[in-house]
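Sample entry (121 residues):
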Amino acid sequence: MERLDELLRQEIARLIAEEVRDPRVGFTTVMQARVSPDLRHARVYVSVLGDDEEKEAAVEALQRASGFLRSRLGAIVEMKYLPELEFELDRSLERAARIEEILERVRPPEEPDDEPSEDGT
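Predicted structure, serialized as tokens:
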């Protein structure tokens, strides 16, 4: 399943970059694809540069293009079932930044190290 997820991620990313002409897609990166065990659905997580409004517009544009992407994907990847594509905003980078910010606030200040002498001791 992991190999299939990675294959779909790579191919969808390539198709978005090369064939989707919607300007709302802009700076979109396909972070991950997860195919359901029955191979009928794939959730595609994307990261988009921009504010919240631009991010939502990009996901909406990708969702509208999902039929086109699915048909192009069918010409590239041989599968028993070609999954329905569902695009979702990947917020893992935002969550990681928020966690780091919280940790910085609760982390005690570091004590300055003793200055080494000129002879290195």
